[in-house]
Amino acid sequence: MIGASVVGIGAIGLSSRPEEILVTYALGSCIGVSAYDPIAKVGGLMHAMLPSASLDRARGRTHPFVFLDTGLPRLLRALESRGAKRERLWIKAAGGASMPGAGGHRFHIGEQNFMALLELLRAGGLELLRHDIGGEIARTMSLMMESGQTRVSAGTKVREL
Which of 30, 68, 117, 120 is an active site residue? Predict the structure, then answer.
């Protein structure tokens, strides 16, 4: 086991190495999306902050993974370039919390992020297999490349999606 490769905020990680784990931390109102092709054995993990690059078009061009609408299509294309097929992807999501004191309650950013993700997937003919969304706690999300398992932890609780 080589350990974890950390995916930062507004970034993605891609892998086809079975010994690798992709992990992202601090998914509050942000959305983590894992996508894994069990036949090609390739997967990716994205940590998106906001639903739409229409909020800041220049930042959407320079940092596409900050936004779901610019990041998700790029994640999917990157996986396809490594042999994945969209129709085989196991897509899972975590985060979308309403974080107290961070504008989360007032602006419902977590909820907006999740609704944007669902719309993007629907428009692309894709299905969200499982999710751990909402609440008021931050999460950590991990994608195990050997099996395609996605785990979500919050505090001392660990859940497989």
Answer: 30
